[in-house]
Amino acid sequence: MYESTFRVMTYALNFRLQFCCLRLMSTLDKAKEISQDPKLVDLAWKIAKRSVNLSSILIAAAGLITKWLLIQPIHNELVYKYRTNQSLYFVPYAFLSSEHYLYLSFLDGYDGMPMLVDFLSHVDRKFAAFVFAVCADELLNIMQSTVYGSAKEVLTLSFATIYDWLDYSISIITQGMCEPDFYPTDDHRFPTRVISVYTSVLLLLYQVVIQLCAKVFPQLTAIEDSFQLLADLFSSMFFPQPENNDGESVSPSTSNFPVPHLIGPYTVAVFLTLTLIVIQSLILLANVRRNSIQSYRGDDTEIPRRHRSEYVSYAVRNFHFAAHFIGYFIWGFILIAVFSLIICIALDGFITYESVPLVDKTLKLTMPSLLFIFFKKKTIDLPTNEKYQIKPNSQSRYTRKWKLAVFLIRNPILFFFRKAYLNQLNMNEIRYINDDDQDSSKRRLSVYTRRMPIALSSIVSDDYMKSFEMYRF
Predict the structure, then answer these.
(1) Per-residue pLDDT tens for 327-367?
(2) Which domain of life is it from (predicted)?
């Protein structure tokens, strides 16, 4: 029995071996035929069989099916919200519902102010765009009407009041009295409001600059005399006016604050103010964008945490954001424009008249204190290794500078003595007087002129040096 079984297995294995050999020979013959006369389809099929595996196809199919199953509910929800005109970021809760209200939990149903709360708390995007367009178009007219005492823009003021006050008040009440489950910075309607406010502010800035350049330029020549009288009146409060013994009008060059032609300083001041305001606005907008992107990707480390004890402060910060921003913008523009105009007029006065006594005296009074503060701050901010770095003369460079600065600040009279001493020489264009020589027996006096280089210094004789010293003292 075992012998017959063994013979059957042997015949079967031999048949299997012969079948495999025949199949291998046919494959080799076919490969030789392809190699001798290859076709593009055969080569492509050969490469495809080597590169693509069934396992890769199965894994890719399983991944796509899993991803589709995970995304399908989210996709259906977004499509439903889009078709029903709902918010895509969160589902707003009912205003003051019984299950979310903290203090009056015994109420059953809903409670709220007797007005269109639902409409005003979920403002339609078209309505918001229309409100911002009207506000941005008539902001300059509102400011002009406020200045001239007329109020004609009732429609714009009404829209701005309704949108800003009620919408932000409802948001504050919802955040403070209810328990929303979403973090307020995750609501990307707030960054869009910020961008809308920035658009209004930049449009207002453009219109203000155009009006300043178009309406004020023709009147600058007429107000130069008035500005000069105002500057003289202000300077006379602190410094005496130059005496007029001849009975003639005092020229602007002899005034304590000579006012040059205002067209150049006014132009520079306007564009300097515009540059500073735009830079500050862009920096603030970049910070808002950075915080928005961080909150979108889940990084809210720079955003302060919410605390129920600070809801009142949150309300104060968020209430009337647009109105406060535009108000601070206008006030900041006015301040920067005024200071820029004063600085530009002073610089133009220095260039035109070579001296502005009021500015000179002000700088002499304030510079010692400012230098003391700046030097002190610089030495405090220095690293320890640089502050106490020992030099060959046992004192660091910063220590020597600090001692020299303190000495000069405490003894400002030395500058006046030096100036008076140089004025007493009665010699034109004397800059430096050096009496430094290695040999004390052959000491010489070198007079350096202001318009001559050091290499062309004139070396005077001993006789002239004695006469010079006698004249000097």
Answers:
(1) 667 777 888 888 888 888 777 777 776 666 666 677 777 77
(2) Eukaryota
Q: Record the pTM.
A: 0.37
Cα distance between residue 342 and residue 360, in whole Å? 14
Torsion of CA 217, 222, 228, 229, to 10 degrees: -140
Q: Do 117 and 140 meet the contact criterion of CB atoms below 8 Å apart?
A: no
Tokens (6 digits) for 435:
């009496």
Yes or no: say if 193 and 322 are a contact pair by the CB < 8 Å rule.
yes
* Amino acid residing at 446: S
Half-sphere exposure of 31 (CA within 13 A, CB side): 7
Run of H or E residues at 446: strand 446-449
Mean pLDDT value of segment 252-258:
58
Q: What is the DSSP letter of 97?
A: B
Q: Is 429 helix (H, G, I), strand (E, B) or coil?
A: coil
Which residues contact residue 164 at a Cβ distance below 8 angstroms, ignoring those fewer than 6 apart?
320, 321, 322, 323
DSSP for 398-430 reads HHHHHHHHHHHHH-THHHHHHHHHHHHT--TTE
Closest CA to 449 of 470, 433, 464, 425: 433
Query: Can you tell me the distance from the alpha carbon of 314 to that of 275, in angstroms, rounded to the nearest whole number?
Result: 32
- Output phi, psi for 433, to 5 deg: -125, 110
